[in-house]
Amino acid sequence: ELGLAGMQRAPISVTVEAPVAEGEEDVDDDLELVVNPFSTVYAVKNLIAEQWPLPALCQKFVVGGVTLEDDVQLAGYTTRGRVTVKIEESYDALAGALLHENPSVRLRG
Question: Which of 21, 37, 39, 82 has the smallest number of CB atoms closer than 10 Å to its CB?
Answer without folding.
Answer: 21
